[in-house]
Amino acid sequence: MLLVLIAGLVFAFGPYVFRRVKYFDHYQHFTEVAAKWKRQPNHCEGYTFQASNGIWLSASTAEQKVADDFSTVTYDGATPDPSRFFVVPPGKWVDTIDEVFATWDEYD
Questions:
Q1: Neighbouring residues of 57: CB distance < 8 A, sequence distance ≥ 6
Q2: How many CA atoms lie within 13 Å of 67's alpha carbon, on the beta-carbon side?
Q3: Cβ neighbours of residue 21 under 8 Å, at least 6 residues apart?
Q4: Strands 56-60 and 46-50
Q5: Given strand 92-94, what is the order of strands in its sheet?
Q6: Has residue 95 got a pLDDT over 80?
Q7: Which residue, 70, 82, 89, 96, has fewest beta-carbon neighbours within 10 Å?
Q8: Residue range 4-31, pLDDT digits in tens
Q9: What SS3 state is found at 79?
Q10: How many CA atoms lie within 13 Å of 73's alpha carbon, on the beta-carbon side?
Q11: Is 71 helix (H, G, I), strand (E, B) or coil?
Q12: Higher local confidence (pLDDT), 36 or 16
């Protein structure tokens, strides 16, 4: 029964812990940067870095136009969301910083 409990805990919390270790530096820096974002109209603030597999990952305060291959992202003056993050790839909104890293983990 103890093995089942341990397996359940690893299955439940393993991916979360793995992402925290994998993106340790980025998680800490992104959290600090995102806390300072003002989310002003006609102003897009973001965080971008290149993953270990060469794909550029970004999160921003406003929706952007994304190329089909995620090679370019263009801000077109959209109003920033007051609390969510627009994540590229895949070009979707998420609610928390943990969801940002979970989304990026699918592409890295």
A1: 48, 49, 50, 51, 87, 88, 89, 104, 107, 108
A2: 7
A3: none
A4: antiparallel
A5: 46-50, 56-60, 85-88, 92-94
A6: yes
A7: 82
A8: 767 676 666 666 666 666 677 888 899 9
A9: coil
A10: 21
A11: coil
A12: 36
What rounded mean pLDDT belongs to the chain?
83
Token pair listed for 46: 């973001």
For tokens 């979360």, name the residue. Answer: 16
Nearest Cα residue to 22 out of 79, 107, 82: 107
| Tally of residues, the chain | 108
* Percent of residues, the chain, with pLDDT higher than 90: 26
Half-sphere exposure of 81 (CA within 13 A, CB side): 18
Q: Which two tokens stand for residue 13?
A: 């919390």
User: Could you tell me the maximum CA-CA distance found in the chain, to the nearest angstrom?
Assistant: 56
Please identify which residue in the block is written with the tokens 């979707």.
92
